[in-house]
Amino acid sequence: MGSFYRRTLTAVWIVIFILGGFWLHPISFFLTGLIILTGSQYEYYRMIRNSGTSARIIPGIFTGSAVYVISTLVAAGIISGKYYLILLPIAFLIMIAELYRKQEKPFDTLAHTFFAVIYIAVPLSLLPYSAFSRTGLQSLLIQKDIVFSPGILIGFLLLQWVNDTGAYLTGITIGRHRLMERISPKKSWEGFFGGLVISSVTAWLISGWIGVVDTTGWIIISVIISIGGTYGDLIESMLKRSTEVKDSGTVMPGHGGFLDRFDSALISFPLVYLFLALFG
Where are the domains of the chain? Predict the structure, then answer.
């Protein structure tokens, strides 16, 4: 039970600071996403280095942050999409710099450096597009001169946390059949369906408050979160097994690091955003 209480207290902290940061104001929205992005990338690079493979931490985090900053400015209508081209010389410079480092396996270094950008920075850079130039649930500090609504992300986070909690409680209570034992021994089919049902019911309850899409849309989103989030968690578990680490970090007691906490979102949020872009 000690572990459960520790996880619960940490979850309260996550809700206050993460949910509050995204909900408070456009600037806090931007900063919260940037902190999660840089923290997750740093943890990824640290795990890779612990496994004996070199990775360029500072250039990688700089590139990921550049993707996120440019996406925020484009989504807010401050600059045009052509500024994404700035990323090309940054990538070229990283590759050229590797010529002078005299590493035994330079392409392993480059592969892990750029994979973290694709795996972490690109999905999280969709967050600004889900909020700027959108109407719906208002931020706590309303800005009259900015069209901004964190509703999509707030609803997403609530459903993801409900799904995770429902899957965890159902799994430890009645979980018997392993979902993918060789990757994550504790995950069960009972936990998966428990999280799916509880998050779907929650989606039905909060759909009228969040808005953006109708009740059916939010229930579909909850299903996407349950399936995509499960695969996101399994992918990170595969990463941890390959690098022989238990948790990606220790910043969140009982939950691990940033990457442990937001691994599900790296797969499920892009799918939710795709659904909204096509049918929302």
Answer: 2-279
